């Protein structure tokens, strides 16, 4: 990595992080939000025309489709350029292969995904100087049952070779992104050489607690084992988390009575991913004092009366935290965005592997960003 990026990661002072969720084709929702964020921050920068999100954020991380967006942003792409790539790639990546056998072979041809990732990243390693800022990617190594969180921090524990293990610095970005996007049932796993002539087998980072990587990125910033050692405090650490559209995963009884094990497994996995995201959001709202809170459930509501760190009647938030997202629920869409969807139409919009409604989700993201993205989300203490 460049000396400038290393110096940036190690420098004292406030730090800014951007966390991007997984969500397949609904990653276009993330990009709609980021277009608003980039425009807002560019106006506050010294050189608006040349501004990139990599100029502002010290660490950009993502899971699955979020990892694709994260690596391109960390390399200095404008959000509009990533959006253009997304609209170009998605219809081809998620085209149904003719020979697919549901439950036996992956639904989609991973070569389409792999070729497009490699067309942008080539053979660049994780230590490449082409990363303009800190970068983090989430994947799940299934042969050992361990989530892998890899960063371009040269102080990280496994950065260098140790005689038996290949150092993280050498892993190709294209391989890491392909691993993070290897959603089970939909794409084949990705093998990466970990030891000499010994591969690790990886699947989508969403098959872990980190489909929404925001909480893990807070841990990266603070836990000594990750060796970032950034400070905590409302004026010291900023975390912006961007979703891909969320909803409660419900399965009709009529489908549950059909004895199709593969489909039951997919429904259950999607439910676990949604539960993990909700738990992450709950914890982050407890640890911070967000200006706009999200309702968690009917019992704890939006947690406004439940600060975790209150001493002597005074709140002590650990960070500044903001979450942007669209709730793909009929009532929320009607009340917040004045959009009405039938059940059938909404199910189609929710489908994270169907590119049919790419433009619809993009527009929903922009509508939500119109009121969610505000200057107050980026306090002056974090100006550059």
What can you see in these coordinates?
With about 375 residues, the protein is α/β, with parallel strands linked by helices. Helices cover about 40% and strands about 15% of the residues. It has helices at about 5-10, 25-45, 55, 65-75, 80-95, 110-120, 175-180, 215-220, 255, 260-285, 330-335, 345-350, 360-370, and strands at about 15-20, 60-65, 135-140, 145-150, 190-195, 200-205, 235-240, 310, 315, 320-325. Strands 1, 2, 3, 4, 5, 6, 7 and 10 form an eight-stranded mixed beta sheet that branches. It has a two-stranded antiparallel sheet with strand order 8-9. It is globular and about 55 Å long.
Mean pLDDT: 92
Helicity range: 25-40%
Q: Report the principal-axis shape.
A: globular
Tally of helical segments: 13
How would you classify the helix and strand content by structural class?
A: alpha/beta
Q: Please describe the biggest sheet, giving its number of strands, its sense, and whether it closes into a barrel.
A: 8 strands, mixed
Q: How many strand units?
A: 10
Regions with little confidence, pLDDT below 50 for 5+ residues: none
End-to-end gap: 22 Å
Please tell me how large the radius of gyration is: 20 Å
Strand content: 5-15%
Order of helices and strands: HEHHEHHHEEHEEHEHHEEEHHH
List the helices and strands and how they pair.
Layout: H1 3-10, E1 15-20, H2 27-44, H3 53-56, E2 59-63, H4 65-74, H5 79-93, H6 110-121, E3 134-141, E4 146-151, H7 173-180, E5 190-195, E6 198-204, H8 214-222, E7 237-242, H9 253-256, H10 261-287, E8 310-311, E9 314-315, E10 320-324, H11 330-337, H12 343-350, H13 358-372
Parallel strand pairs: 1-2, 1-7, 2-3, 7-10
Antiparallel strand pairs: 3-4, 3-6, 5-6, 8-9
Helix pairs in contact: 2-5, 2-13, 6-7
